[in-house]
Amino acid sequence: MALAPPLCHLLAAPPPSTSAAADAAHDHAGALAPHRRASPLRRRGRLFLACRVPAAAPSARGVAAEAAAGRPTVLVTEKLGDAGLELLRRFANVDCAYELTAEELRAKVSLVDALVVRSATRVTREVFEAARGRLRVVGRAGVGIDNVDLQAATEAGCLVVNAPTANTVAAAEHAIALLAAMARNVAQADASLKAGKWQRNKYVGVSLVGKTLAIMGFGKVGSEVARRAKGLGMDIISHDPYAPVDRARAIGVDLVSFDEAISTADFISLHMPLTPSTAKLFDDETFANMKKGVRIINVARGGVVDEDALLRALDNGTVSQAALDVFTEEPPPKDSKLVHHEHVTVTPHLGASTSEAQEGVALEIAEAVLGALKGELAATAVNAPMVPAEVLSELSPYVVLAEKLGRLVVQLVAGGSGIKGVKIGYSSSRDPDDLDTRVLRAMVTKGIIEPISSAFVNIVNADYVAKQRGLRISEERILLDGSPEIPIDSIQVHLANVESKFAGALSDEGDIRVEGEVKDGKPHLTLVGPFSVDVSLEGNLILCRQVDQPGIIGKVGSILGKMNVNVNFMSVGRTAPGKQAIMAIGVDEEPEKEALKLIGDIPSVEEFVFIKL
Ligand SMILES: NC(=O)C1=CN([C@@H]2O[C@H](COP(=O)(O)OP(=O)(O)OC[C@H]3O[C@@H](n4cnc5c(N)ncnc54)[C@H](O)[C@@H]3O)[C@@H](O)[C@H]2O)C=CC1
Ligand SMILES: O=C(O)C(=O)COP(=O)(O)O
Questions:
Q1: HEC readout, 392-444
Q2: Which of 264, 274, 191, 177 is nearest to 228 (CA)?
Q3: What pLDDT is recorded for position 7?
Q4: pLDDT digits (tens, 9 = 90+) for 57-112
Q5: In Å, what is the CA distance from 316 to each residue of 288, 312, 487?
Q6: Three-state secondary structure of 518-584
Q7: CA-to-CA distance for 175 and 262, rounded, in angstroms?
């Protein structure tokens, strides 16, 4: 899927790390690619979020073009299916470095554009800091992203994508395998027989048919477990505060309260994510409220269970058996009492480990990472809005306009007057519900912040960076009577309560105000303060306010001509003949100071400003 050219402007990557330390480290990087100061993907300042990539080949086509000139580098820190690795290798330099220490990971991460992990790699704030702005994407080849510091990723403007669907069935099948193995003591009986014993009476199990299974977390895995357990003749209830009742009912599952689920179930299977609100959700109090002799399966995350409390519940008989695939600390300590408990069946986080799931997950993440590096929106983005491809493609010229208006308006602010409130207006004939402006808001933010700071802004971190800088950004829709086919007629950007270095840009309310439109696919400036103009927003711009009279255009034009500055566009807007007028002049080159001074010296010119777009 080739990226529409204007979208290349959407989400600029930060400037490449060119520090001597980074270069030196790179020289010693072994498997890593020879250092390029900026891979083409980064040099062009591409956006890195786009839509779902439908298939491997299309997703990578655009990357292929990039690859001809230079390739991004991807670090893979855990075993990934071959198909995914092959796909990555077609378009990127791939460094597979498993079992890195935290220190080794920090050392490598500043040398790569993307990082692919599974559940064992802890992608902490320190990792993002060590990346020094180069890392653009973290791909989690699986579902749970509790090992990635999402807040730190967002602050760093680093996209996090996961592969949320390809291992669902594997995890559900593993939960069923553990359920049945636990109920029939398969693991214990196997170990006993291999130790030379024949203990038929000791390993009498319990039947599943007719028993109540409570599924805690009715998401992708939980619902697949429910389907399978129904086939085993179990009665299924589920607790999930966010699951749609209809979806549960459709497969014959009742959604019940937490207390009802834990107090009535014979078996409890955990399928919720580890979040601050689910951490140690299963503690002493929860176990005390369970039906005596309950059996528990955990294929979700060890951290949702207070493992000491579980041990106590096993010892006092509240919980008669547990089957655990996941642990708070992985691997668990060798002398873990839980792991060695005779009523506990354990596996080393194997839920997603089938060859089918691993191939699927690897392909899913390789496509998402390559697509993101190439500048597409990721349908599986975890820390960024998901904007469908068709919406993005339609909005792409407005994306450029939004950033240019941001860049323009901030350069009209007088030095020293802090910007606080930004109002963005969208004039459109479209129903506001059919107009997704998140990308445009991010681009106005980028345009305003980047020229005045060292921050780089993209769709991942725009709202965060704005908030950090105390910038209040509000949006307003102006509904027009027109054809909804054109998404936006014009975009206005207002800065309130600031002084302007160009008084002509002040609206009647005293705000700095600019407005632009897309014409023939190109961004145009159409309003400055109260003055209508029409100048293409490309290259550089000179805004000049003067008393409307003949000859000024010629004078300014000849000064620029003498200084070899090519004028690509010129437009004059005035309030009334003979009154104030604004001249907007698009210039290819930045005029020398002398030329600007000569323009300022023209007697009827009252003020002027030079703007880099
Ligand atoms: N052991 C393994 O190898 C694997 C583990 N997993 C883990 O399984 C879990 C579920 O994965 P998916 O089903 O794909 O995720 P999902 O996002 O589709 O489902 C999670 C469900 O949990 C629900 N939930 C959130 N908070 C809850 C709470 N306090 N109480 C009850 N429900 C709550 C959500 O509403 C959602 O429906 C995750 O923790 C994931 O990391 C997934 C795949 C493999
Ligand atoms: O996808 C998940 O959430 C898993 O827990 C699977 O983890 P893994 O990729 O096997 O380390």
A1: HHHHHHHHHHHHHHHHHHHCCECCCCCCCEEEEEEEECCCHHHCCCHHHHHHH
A2: 177
A3: 43
A4: 334 444 444 444 579 999 999 999 999 999 999 999 999 999 999 999 999 999 99
A5: 10, 6, 65
A6: EECCEEEEEEECCEEEEEECCCEEEEEEEECCCCHHHHHHHHHHHCCCCEEEEEEEECCCCCEEEEE
A7: 18
Task: For ligand 2, say whether the CB of 351 is within 6 Å of any of its atoms.
Answer: yes
- Which ligand 1 atom lies nearest to the CA of residue 170? 44
Q: What is the pLDDT of residue 562?
A: 87
Number of H helices and number of E strands within the chain? 21, 22
> Which residues form the catalytic set?
301, 330, 349
Asked if the interface predicted TM-score (ipTM) of this complex is over 0.90, the answer is yes
Atom of ligand 2 at shortest distance to CA of 301?
5
As beta bridge partners, residue 524 has: 517, 536
Token digits for 501? 């270095």
Which is it for strands 344-346 and 319-324: parallel, antiparallel or unpaired? parallel
Task: Output phi, psi for 373, to 5 deg.
Answer: -65, -30
Rounded to the nearest 10°, the torsion over CA 60, 62, 66, 72 is -40
pLDDT tens, 502-539?
Answer: 999 999 888 999 999 999 999 999 999 999 999 999 88
Q: In the block, which residue shows the tokens 């000859």? A: 551
Domains of the chain: 69-161+356-372 (3.40.50.720), 165-344 (3.40.50.720), 387-524 (3.30.1330.90), 529-612 (3.30.70.260)
Is any ligand 2 atom within 6 A of the Cβ of residue 118?
Answer: yes
Nearest protein Cα to ligand 2, atom 11: 119
Atom of ligand 2 nearest to the CA of 361: 9
Ligand having the closest approach to the CA of 172: 1
The DSSP output letter for 196 is: T
Distance CA(209)–CA(458), nearest Å, equals 54
Query: pLDDT tens digits, residue range 531-587?
Result: 999 999 988 999 999 887 788 888 888 898 888 888 888 888 876 666 788 989 999
Q: What is the C-alpha to C-alpha distance for residues 610 and 411, in angstroms, rounded to an integer?
A: 9
